[in-house]
């Protein structure tokens, strides 16, 4: 029972990551458009910001799919499959912790 609950939570987390990546790329872009419109930046920098923006959204989508895949593998008996989702989780915890210290506010 406990394993099923964990598996469901991991799949939901992966789904949220995936949908979050899509939202980040396409819905969040509107806020970036508004913010950048008032800044005097050159065209190259403008393009680079959007490139990184879409890359991050794509990473979120890929991370979500990897979490779902590793959970599926673990449920099917893959004893080492959860290292993928564990690594992604650790990355987010470390990034959030470092950002909290560096920015002195929640990330």
Mean pLDDT: 91
Total helices: the number is 4
Low-confidence stretches: none
Give a count of the beta strands, DSSP E runs of length 2 or more: 0
- Shape assignment: elongated
Largest sheet: none
Helix and strand succession?
A: HHHH
- Rg for CA atoms: 17 Å
Q: What proportion of the residues is helical, as a percent range?
A: over 70%
The portion of residues forming beta strands comes to under 5%
What structural class do helix, strand and pairing data support? mainly alpha
Terminal Cα span: 34 Å
> How many domain units?
1
Report on this model:
- This protein has 107 residues and is mainly α.
- It has one domain.
- It contains four helices and no strands.
- The chain has helices at 2-26, 29-37, 43-75, 83-103.
- It is elongated, with a radius of gyration of 17 Å.
């Amino acid at each position: 029972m406990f394993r099923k609950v964990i598996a469901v939570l991991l799949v939901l987390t992966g789904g949220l990551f995936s949908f979050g990546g899509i939202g980040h790329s396409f819905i969040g872009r509107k806020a970036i458009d508004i913010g950048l419109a008032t800044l005097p930046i050159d065209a190259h920098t403008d393009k680079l910001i959007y490139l990184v923006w879409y890359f991050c959204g794509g990473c979120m989508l890929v991370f979500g799919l990897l979490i779902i895949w590793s959970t599926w593998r673990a449920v099917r008996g893959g004893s080492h499959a959860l290292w993928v989702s564990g690594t992604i989780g650790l990355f987010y915890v470390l990034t959030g912790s470092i950002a909290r210290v560096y920015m002195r506010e929640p990330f």
